[in-house]
What we know:
- Strands 1, 2, 3, 4, 5 and 6 form a six-stranded parallel β-sheet that branches.
- It is built from eight helices and six strands; from the N terminus they run βαβαααβαβααββα.
- Helices cover 35% and strands 13% of the residues.
- It is α/β, with parallel strands linked by helices.
- Strand 3, helix 5 and strand 4 form a beta-alpha-beta unit.
- It has one domain: Flavodoxin domain (Rossmann fold, 3-Layer(aba) Sandwich).
- The mean pLDDT is 96.
- The longest helix has 16 residues.
Amino acid sequence: MNVFIVHAHNEPQSFCTAMLHRMVQRFQAQGHEVHVSDLYAMQFNPVASAADFQARSNPDYLVYALEQRNADKTGTLAPDIAAEVAKLKACDLLVLNFPLYWFSLPAILKGWIDRVFLSGVVYGGRNFYDRGLLKGKKALLTFSLGGREHMFGPGSIHGDLNAMLKPVLQGSLGYAGMQVLEPFAAYHVPYITHEARVEVLEALDACVDGLETRAVLPKPSLDDFDPQMNPINS
């Protein structure tokens, strides 16, 4: 299996970075090929702009998605994007590893999605959800956060984590057609003991070992909607 881990933490000594190294070791020990994009170490530019295209189909007015399609076809993507797209195309499993910021992704990781999830390569027209262009690939979120586990879920103060992360779980990964696995959350890590951190890393090992049977999150099927995207049985 080809595993592509996109890591987004600004401290190399962080627990989140320890999670990255643990996953790399575990996947490699199982004989998998692993590629890592450490976005902060790469100084990855998260800002989508006209500079992402070495040549434009319309130099007078920027329609970003259309220029993505053109640049992919003509080989005129900015080199940093092209390198990430190549890794994305080649992978069987995409792992996004990050600290939870404000119920969401760090800006650098959101910008990676904005720039790398190309129209025409990842999605386009009616090619989304179960017809997305990355259908056949799997995706997993692994993340650290400060909150305690009991603070998330039905009836909790913050609510359900998967609902919180719907923009990336469904709106990005699921929209692209990927099979989105149940996320792995490392709770309360700034405040727990060394022994508790070891237990979290062991749980992460179990997550990696059990990917084949890990729960898959539901996503819409276009078969349930008409060409105008109205529910067929409404």
